[in-house]
Design brief:
Elements lengths: L1 E7 L17 H9 L6 H9 L7 E5 L6 H6 L4 E3 L9 H13 L4 E6 L1 H11 L5 E5 L13 H12 L5 E10 L1 H5 L5 E11 L16 H14 L5 E4 L3 H10 L9 E4 L2 E4 L4 H8 L4 E6 L6 E3 L8 H7 L4 E4 L2 H5 L6 E3 L4 H7 L1 E8 L2 E8 L7 E3 L1
Parallel strand pairs: 1-2, 1-4, 2-3, 4-5, 8-11, 11-13, 12-14, 13-15, 14-16
Antiparallel strand pairs: 6-7, 8-9, 9-10, 15-16, 16-17
Length: about 375
């Protein structure tokens, strides 16, 4: 019987849909909740655990929203080892990890973001396998499954005696205050042992701004020529979209979402709720890019494109831009979606046009699994 420890950071990712670009700090959490955000990590953990229903698993967890509630929602009995403070803190995460380590778990499963991974790395290091259920805002580290169901399926393989490799994977630490100012300041924090399966586990986030400047300029020039003035354009985060805004002569929120129409910024650094309020029933399209190395199109750093926003726009109004070099770096893996809504994720799967350069569009496979992709020139 596989003995799994489960830790959920219930506040992970709470700042994403509200445009706060992180969840570190009590003030940020309070502001996110004031804006109407609700915890998503417990539900994402339950989605992963449902794949383990009926499997030979002994689950150890922490009280309430730190794991107990997710196990109950998935129909899995769990032994509760301890209680968090009134509101879950990084110290609660570290205490839970230490207690589970003492109980001799085979694998530690956690739901959170890079901050949660950092806290667990402090306690566990490379002493046992760890797998992350993605629930944060950014998740640059390579310790996460591509979505909650992928985490469950990978553990399901382990329960059934499947041959699953394990390797060291990087934990990255990002400065959230700098991130909110539009500066990506990430560093190597440590490594943890992670079960390896290319279909289910994401890669470490790779930067490409310095090496792709010319390609981005040409790609952006083509996109600028395609922008129509009779609809709202939601300009997603990232350097590719930022170059489009530069060529339009407009101010840009590098790590947020701006709304433009007819060559003017009508709303800057918006939340998911603000997007719906601004566009109302008017025509609207979203421009987004792909995270280098990982391949995520939705669900990493752009949670402002919430399930409600995506459904409002429709799949055909999602404009994806990524240079050929960025796509080639995926080594055949598809683009990934992890919106928080499994039904919507499935609806987004299939071939999607990706603008890769000036008058250069490719059809690329979109999936919830990081298996082999199909790429075809349009």
């Amino acid at each position: 019987m596989l003995k799994i420890g489960l830790i959920v950071n219930p506040l992970a990712g709470i700042g994403g849909p509200t445009g706060l670009k992180g969840s570190d700090g009590e003030d940020t959490v309070a502001e996110a909740m004031r804006r109407g955000a609700r915890p998503q990590a417990p539900d994402r953990a339950a989605r992963a655990l449902r794949k383990l229903a009926g499997e030979p698993v002994q689950l150890l967890t922490w009280h309430g929203a730190m794991g107990e509630e997710s196990a109950a929602a998935a129909g899995i009995r769990a032994e509760v080892l301890g209680h968090p403070a009134a509101r879950s803190t990084p110290e609660d995460t570290r205490q839970a990890a230490a207690a589970m380590l003492e109980r001799g778990i085979d694998l530690l499963l956690f739901a959170g973001g890079d901050g949660t991974a950092r806290d667990i790395c402090d306690v566990v290091g490379s002493r046992l396998p760890v797998l992350g259920i993605p629930a944060g805002c950014k998740m640059h580290s390579a310790v996460y499954a591509v979505n909650p169901e992928a985490a469950g399926r990978l553990l399901q393989q382990l329960c059934r005696g499947g041959l699953v490799g394990v390797a060291e994977a990087e934990v990255r630490d990002i400065d959230e205050e700098a991130f909110r100012r539009g500066v990506v300041r990430a560093r190597h924090y440590g490594v943890m042992q992670v079960p390896q399966d290319g279909r289910f586990v994401q890669q470490v986030k790779c930067g490409g701004q310095e090496n792709e400047t010319l390609a981005q300029v040409e790609l952006a020039a083509w996109l600028v020529a395609q922008l129509d003035d009779d609809c709202f354009w939601l300009m997603g985060s990232g350097s590719t979209v930022a170059e489009v805004m530069v060529q339009l002569g407009l101010p840009n929120t590098l790590l947020g979402v701006d709304i433009i129409r007819a060559g003017e910024v009508v709303a800057a650094d918006v939340s998911a709720g603000q997007i719906l309020q601004v566009i109302s029933d008017a025509p609207a399209r979203a421009l987004m890019t792909v995270i280098g190395g990982q391949g995520h199109m939705l669900g990493r750093g752009n949670q402002q494109f919430s399930p409600a926003v995506i459904r409002k726009l429709g799949r055909n109004n999602l404009v994806v831009a990524a240079t050929r070099a960025k796509l080639a770096a995926l080594n055949g893996r598809p683009l990934l979606v992890d919106t928080g809504d499994p039904e919507l994720d499935q609806q987004l799967c299939g071939l999607i046009p990706v603008v890769a350069g000036y008058d250069d569009t490719l059809l690329v496979q979109v999936s919830t699994d990081a298996g082999l992709a199909e790429v075809e020139k349009v």
